[in-house]
Structure formats: C-alpha cells, structure tokens
Amino acid sequence: MFFRSPKSLLLAAILLVVGSAQFFLGWTYADAAKGEATATGTITYITGGRGGSTYNYKFEIDGVKLEQDSGTCQTPLTPQGCKVGAPVLVYYAHIPVLETRLQEFGAASREKYFMGGWMAGCGLLLIGLYLILKKAEKGSEEPDEPDESGRKNEADVLHIVSGE
User: Fold this and answer.
1) pTM for this model (two decimals)
2) What is the pLDDT of residue 95?
C-alpha cells in the first residue's frame, strides 16, 4: 500500500517544502500589497507552454522604461483582454527590489496562502496516515495464539525460604 511506503513520506516532504515556499511568497506579496503602486503597460508578447502562458509587458515608472513578465494577466484595461498590444494595469512595489505583477498583490497573496495551506495540510495528512498504518501493521504482527505450554508470559519468581 502506498501510504505505508517510504514514497509517501517523500511525497509528504515535497508537499511540505513546496507549501512552505508558497507561504513565503504569500507573505512577500502581502508585504508588497502595503506599498503597491500602479502603472499602465502594454503586452509585448505572450509565450505559452504546458505550465500556462507567460505575459511579457513593458511599462514606465518615473521616466524609466521597464520590461517584465508575469505568469498571470488579470488586469486588462480594454475588452480586448490580455492580447499582444493591449493595455494592462501593472502593479509594482519595491520590497526591497522591484516586484511587478499583472495582478493585485493582495489577491496574489491570498492565492499563495491558500495553495501553501492546502499543500502543507496534505503533507501532514500523509505523514499521519503513514504513522497510523505503520503502528497498525506492527500491532497485527503480535501472535494471536496463546502460549501452548499453558504458562503465562510472566517472569518466573524465585522464592527463597530461609532455614532449610
């Protein structure tokens, strides 16, 4: 059974590590949400793959032209949506380096916290199942039949009588 194998512990460890990383990103985005600002940008190109799309966009902050990318685009400014050449709202914050997203930092933080909690919870559940099933397996290995000699499994007591 998978839940009694060391593979389940490995999966649990991976879930806990990735869940912790998600919590850290959620904390970082929550910190960024306190000082976020916005700028208007334009999508320059979109790349897609198995893991989803990546949106590259250019924008300007205080006269400095920047180009970044984001794995999500939730801030289109026109009905055209998130297509090449479309304007988008860029959220940015200096935490201590520039962090930009095409999504509000508060919403990104909530998503990361939820995903991190789900992964860490599943990892802890796997560890719990492993321990419970291993304990049940050890309990079933004890002999069910009584000792055939008829004696109890107690230590023999030696009685010494003085004066004989």
Assistant:
1) 0.71
2) 84
pLDDT of residue 118: 96
Average pLDDT over residues 2-23: 92
pLDDT value of position 108:
95
Instruction: Report the distance separating Cα 119 and Cα 9, nearest Å.
Output: 14
> Which is it for strands 64-70 and 87-94: parallel, antiparallel or unpaired?
unpaired
The confidence score (pLDDT) of residue 151 equals: 58
The amino acid at residue 17 is V
pLDDT at 98: 92
Q: Tokens 């321990």 — which residue? A: 131
The 3-class secondary structure across the chain, one letter per residue, is CHHHCHHHHHHHHHHHHHHHHHHHHHHHHHHHHCCCEEEEEEEEEEEEECCEEEEEEEEEECCEEEEEEECCCCCECCCCCCCCCCEEEEEEEECCCEEEECCCHHHHHHHHHHHHHHHHHHHHHHHHHHHHHHHHHHHHCCCCCCCCCCCCCCCCCCCCCCCC
User: Length of the chain, please?
Assistant: 164
